[in-house]
Amino acid sequence: MILYNTLGQKKQEFKTHTEGTVNMYTCGPTVYHFAHIGNLRTYIMEDVLEKYLRYEGYKVNRVMNITDVGHLASDADTGEDKMLKGAKREHKTVLEIADFYTKAFFEDCKKLNIKTPDVVEPATCCIPEFIEMVETLLKKGYAYEAGGNVYFDTSKLDKYYVFGNQSEEDLAVGVRDSVTEDEFKKNKTDFVLWFTKSKFDDQELKWESPWGLGYPGWHIECSAISIKHGGEYLDLHCGGVDNAFPHHTNEIAQSEAYLGHEWCPHWFHVLHLLDSTGKMSKSKGEFLTVSLLESKGYDPLVYRMFCLQSHYRKPLTFTFESLDNAAVAYNKLVNRIANLKAEGEIETEKAEKYKAKFKEAMGNDLNTSLGLTCLYDVLKAGVNDATKLHLIEDFDTVLSIGLIDAAKKVRAAKSENISTDFTAEIEALIEKRQKARAEKDWATADKIRDELAAKKVIIKDTPQGVTWEIAE
Ligand code: AMP
Ligand code: ZN
Fold first, then answer.
1. Quick one: which ligand is closest to 238's CA?
2. Minimal CB count within 10 Å: which of 47, 89, 117, 268?
3. Which residue, judged by its Cα, is nearest atom 12 of ligand 1?
4. Residue 283 CB burial class (10 angstroms; 0-12, 13-18, ≥19)
């Protein structure tokens, strides 16, 4: 597969440390509020990537954290803990908030056909691992204690800014525009590994540590959880583009300092979902959720289709008008599939050609809009319906827009519109025909078949018995 790598900023062949196996890590949600549909754009595209890697034959071990402690309202290690903010807002404990919004996140994922990663680990379950990592970083001289906190010393690295080609000075200023500098830091870019002293002393969750009662910084959790479940060599790390700096930059700094070797060679970042005012974000107050889309009558899978229509490396602007367009396209697609009949043998050789085209599209930096085009090509293809259905089902193991199920529902809804009287009449005729056939009365059997055809009923003799349907 060819996949863009933010590290090096170019498309390149995706390679793994062990042939056929992908160790994949995904930054999970901060569970202080519902996920907005922007967050979910990132998880949808990561899900497609994971499923496509499996489609190509890789065995994937995907790990994801749940940030239930340590993510500060400002990425520059200052500000209030996001979890605590959520707890105060709802007059609940931090753990109640975490539990509620973790469940809500996975419910949204289920509605969007996002597979749950193989390992999901809340940060609060890994405190001993964080402490061990911070201790090692101190021992190796990559960290220092100051003002009651432990900081990572970025001056010990040959290169700190690993993504992008902005000058180090630009980035430092950009990120810290409105932030008061922490007086205990030796360098602007140093970040907290472990807090015991923060401006916000009412932090609810604290743990004993060699540096006193405290709590971990945000970045340490992803390094430690990834190493715990994915080992020392990661193949692929994913997240939204805002994670690249400072979060992923800091993850790389501390993981490589801790391990003493390169950690993850390939970084996948999804560009943002925007609304009319810019980047969609939870802190803006009002934001769009899956439940809100549902309450307006949208199938969550229409939103998934909307995301697939664009490339993950382009910002995507959300409007209800464009979601309506996606809904129209989705319903048309489903209706066309509902009209296919599972007849005939699958034409394997021809099917392979269409699968190769799908791989060409998806294997070229996850071109999901071309992947969708492959579905339309199949519908137009000169192959029988059984082959079309087989290919659609095959591609949908990756795209996951629920096409086969949705088509079944359309068919069921159509047949529900047929009155019970009519059904009884047809079934009586079919029974009469069966009787005639059993008695080798072919003339009567044929007459009944014609009678059924006049009523636009098509009958099929299958090993399981006679089935019937209304002609389109
Ligand atoms: P959070 O819950 O804030 O930790 O974010 C969860 C994921 O959503 C991270 O990978 C973020 O980078 C990503 N994310 C945040 N905002 C957006 C957005 N507007 N569009 C796409 N992804 C986003
Ligand atoms: Zn992370």
1. 1
2. 89
3. 240
4. exposed
